[in-house]
Specification:
Number of strands: 2
Distance between the termini: 50 Å
Strand content: under 5%
Bound molecules: 2-acetamido-2-deoxy-beta-D-glucopyranose
Strand order of the largest sheet: 1-2
Number of helices: 12
Shape: globular
Mean pLDDT: 92
CATH class: Mainly Alpha
CATH architecture: Up-down Bundle
Largest sheet: 2 strands, antiparallel
C-alpha cells in the first residue's frame, strides 16, 4: 500500500517536471474535451465556406487544392464555377484559399472528422431565397449566375461562422483553443466585412430580374436567419432603421452589430437551425443533408433518432 502510494506520488512529480520542461508546442496539445467539441463544431462551417468559395472561383473544390484535408469525406453536391468578373474571382479565390488554411489550422489542434456531405447546389440557395421572400422567385435564384448573386449568397455564409466564434469564445478553457478561435474569428470577420462592403457599394441596385434591391435582399436574409435561429435580433441587413444603426444615429449598416457595435454571438444550436434551413438543430437539411459532424451536432441528431 505504502509502496503503491509512493509510486503514485513519484509518477505525479515526474509528470509535473515533464510538463514544465516540455516545449510549449507539445503542452499546447492538451486541450479539454469541451474546447475540442467547440473547435470541431467550427470545422463544419469551415468545410462549407471552403467548398462554396473555391467552387465559385474555380469550379472545383478542396479535392483539387488539399485533398488530404477532406479526409475521404464525400464530394460536395452541386457546386459550380460562378460567372465572376476577374476582380470578384480574385477576391473569392482568396477567401476560398483562406478557408483551406483554417481547415489545416483546426486539424492541427483537434482530430476532427472527414468533410461532411455538403449540398451547395443552386437549388439550396433558391429554396432559401424563396423562404426569405415568402414566394417563389422566378427564375429561381442562382448564386452561380453572376457576381452580384454570388455576393448575395456569400452574405449568408461567413457571418454565421463569425457569430459562432464570438459565441464560443467565453466558453474556451485552453490558451491553444483561444488563440486558434481568435485567429479564425479575425479572418471570418474580415471576410464578412469584405462581402458586406462590396454589397454596400451597390446597396440600392436592383437585382436582375427580380426588381428587388440589394438592401432588401440582405435585410430579408438576416431576418430569416434570426427567425430560423429563434434568437431575437442577432443579424442585420445593410440598411436598418436608424435606431439599430451605430449609436442609433445612422441607417447605413455596413457591419452587423449590437447597440455598442459589438458582434452578435450565436450558440451551436442557433447555427445548426440556420445552416440546416429547418429551424431545428435535430432536423438536418439545407447545406448539410446528413447533418453536421462532431460531438455537439451529432448529439442532437441522436436525440432525433436519425
Ligand atoms: C441538394 O439540394 C437540391 C436542392 O434543394 C435537392 O434537390 C437535392 O435533392 C439535394 N441533394 C441531397 C443529396 O440532399
Amino acid at each position: 500500500m505504502a509502496l503503491s502510494l509512493s509510486t503514485t506520488t513519484t509518477v505525479a512529480i515526474v509528470s509535473v517536471i515533464l510538463l514544465l520542461i516540455l516545449p510549449t508546442s507539445y503542452c499546447s496539445e492538451f486541450i479539454p474535451d469541451s474546447d475540442r467539441d467547440v473547435i470541431e463544431f467550427a470545422l463544419n462551417l469551415e468545410y462549407l465556406e471552403t467548398e462554396f468559395f473555391l467552387s465559385g472561383a474555380l469550379g472545383r473544390g478542396l479535392d483539387s487544392i488539399a485533398p488530404s484535408l477532406a479526409a475521404g469525406g464525400p464530394r460536395p453536391i452541386g457546386g459550380r464555377q460562378a460567372k465572376l468578373d476577374p476582380f470578384l474571382k480574385d477576391v473569392m479565390l482568396q477567401l476560398g484559399l483562406q478557408e483551406v488554411g483554417h481547415l489545416r489550422a483546426i486539424k492541427s489542434v483537434v482530430k476532427g472528422f472527414p468533410r461532411p456531405l455538403l449540398n451547395i447546389s443552386a437549388g439550396v440557395f433558391a429554396e432559401a431565397l424563396n423562404t426569405v421572400f415568402g414566394r417563389r422567385l422566378v427564375p429561381p435564384f442562382n448564386p452561380y449566375d453572376n457576381g452580384l448573386n454570388f455576393l448575395i449568397a456569400s452574405y449568408a455564409i461567413p457571418y454565421v461562422g463569425l457569430t459562432g466564434y464570438v459565441g464560443a469564445n467565453p466558453n474556451l478553457q485552453s490558451a491553444t483553443a483561444k488563440r486558434l478561435v481568435a485567429g479564425l474569428l479575425g479572418v471570418e470577420a474580415g471576410q464578412d466585412a469584405v462581402i458586406r462592403t462590396l454589397l454596400y457599394s451597390r446597396v440600392q441596385e436592383k437585382v436582375y430580374p427580380y426588381g428587388i434591391t440589394v438592401a432588401e435582399f440582405t435585410d430579408r436574409i438576416s431576418k430569416l436567419r434570426d427567425r430560423l435561429a429563434r434568437d431575437g435580433l442577432k443579424d442585420e441587413g445593410l440598411i436598418v432603421p436608424q435606431a439599430d444603426g451605430a449609436e442609433g444615429k445612422i441607417s447605413g449598416n455596413v457591419l452587423s452589430a449590437d447597440q455598442n457595435s459589438l458582434s452578435y454571438a450565436r450558440t451551436p444550436e442557433e447555427i445548426l437551425r440556420i445552416v440546416y434551413g429547418t429551424g431545428d438543430e435535430r432536423v438536418p437539411g439545407g447545406f448539410y443533408p446528413r447533418g453536421a459532424d462532431g460531438r455537439i451536432a451529432k448529439s442532437y441528431l441522436r436525440i432525433h433518432g436519425a
